[in-house]
Write a structure and sequence with these properties.
With 325 residues, the chain is an alpha+beta fold. 30% of the residues lie in helices and 22% in strands. A 6-stranded mixed β-sheet has the order 8-10-7-11-9-12, with helices on both faces. The protein has a 4-stranded mixed β-sheet with strand order 3-6-4-5. A two-stranded antiparallel sheet has the order 1-2. Helix 3 (98-115) links the parallel strand 4 and strand 5 (118-126). Helix 4 runs parallel beside helix 8 (245-254). It is globular, with a radius of gyration of 20 Å.
Length: 325
């Protein structure tokens, strides 16, 4: 980076890129120009810091770029919007190989395209460590935003996407397991590159709209707890609906608790929603519980013991704490 410089790299990583339809003006001017067809944006931002949220000895630059976009795109989709554009601020030490930054940029473009958007611009600065900050924009398409506060007693709780596999991958990386063992390949891949099931949500817009919706980033029970609190309801989860035989097999190899990975592991970037019992669940969704009167989250009617997910700054008390968060 010291030899190439900021502007040469910006030109290099933007060369040949094709912007999504909502990006009217991309990199190259003082700011990007993004269409807002119905006069509103859904906006979300997230920051990843090397050594806290990712490690270059655990993940490739492409993996890191994809993960940075995926966690932001999932937040936008969880509000009922289609991702349209992303702006990225990236800081790195001067000795950072150019190939690392190019790989991160490639990964960002891959995931932005999968989510339906593109990289509209950003900033590149010198910093003491590698830092990636992403802001995502989404279009509601004239529909009302889907928030956490719409759940009502009697609603069905359902999820789209896989649960617990990211935590399983983290357990492999932080433990003494053989990372080359094929039994751990899927867990490692899922942790390195989350696969939010964007289409399961987007394809349901307007026809099978949930009453409340959130992405699962802090852990299933923690994120359902946010829905319960915002909606002033209680949520009961059925443990039988969370059992994953393949994940249990991996947990057995690591002498770990698969149910803890599923319920509190975090970084799944799946989606959890509540649905009227009068509406059939759309494709890609499976029921896992029910909304009732009251407060809090229970599993089979019992309040969970211990932590339910990740919370920044909670330090040693964080049950899902890891070197990447």
């Amino acid at each position: 980076m010291r030899e190439l410089g900021e502007f040469a790299l910006i030109d290099r990583i933007n060369a040949g890129r094709e912007q999504a339809a909502h990006v009217l003006l991309g990199p190259g001017d003082d700011a990007a120009l993004i269409a807002a067809p119905d006069g509103r944006f859904v906006v979300s931002t997230d920051m990843l810091v090397e050594g806290r949220h990712f490690r270059l000895d655990w993940s490739s630059p492409v993996d890191i770029g994809r993960k940075a976009i995926a966690q932001n795109a999932a937040d936008v989709v969880a509000m009922g919007a289609r991702p349209t554009a992303f702006v990225v601020a990236l800081g790195c030490p001067a000795q950072t190989p150019v190939s690392v930054i190019e790989g991160i940029a490639d990964g960002m473009w891959i995931e932005a395209s999968r989510a339906g958007g593109s990289i509209a611009g950003g900033d590149l600065v010198h910093s003491e460590q590698l830092v990636v900050s992403v802001t995502a924009f989404g279009d509601l398409g004239g529909q009302a935003a889907i928030t956490r506060s719409g759940a009502t007693p009697g609603d069905i709780v359902a999820v789209a996407g896989e649960l617990g596999w990211s935590a399983a991958g983290l357990a492999v990386l932080t433990g003494e397991a053989d990372r080359s063992d094929p039994d751990f390949a899927y867990a490692l891949a899922t942790h390195r590159v989350p696969q939010p099931p964007y289409a399961a949500v987007i394809d349901a817009f307007g026809t099978h709209t949930p009453t409340a919706l959130t992405d699962i980033s802090d852990g299933l029970l923690a994120d359902l707890g946010h829905v319960a609190a915002a909606s002033n309801v209680a949520i009961d989860v059925h443990s039988s609906a969370l059992t994953d035989p393949e994940l249990c097999a991996v947990a057995k190899l690591l002498d770990a608790d698969a149910m803890h990975w599923v319920s509190a592991g975090g970084e799944d970037h799946a989606f959890a929603g509540t649905w009227s019992p009068d509406i059939a669940l759309p494709a890609g969704w499976r029921p896992i519980g029910i909304v009732t009167a009251g407060s809090g989250v229970t599993v089979d009617g019992v309040a969970p013991i211990g932590g339910t997910g990740w919370e920044s700054f909670r330090g040693a008390d964080a049950t899902a704490a890891d070197d990447e968060r």
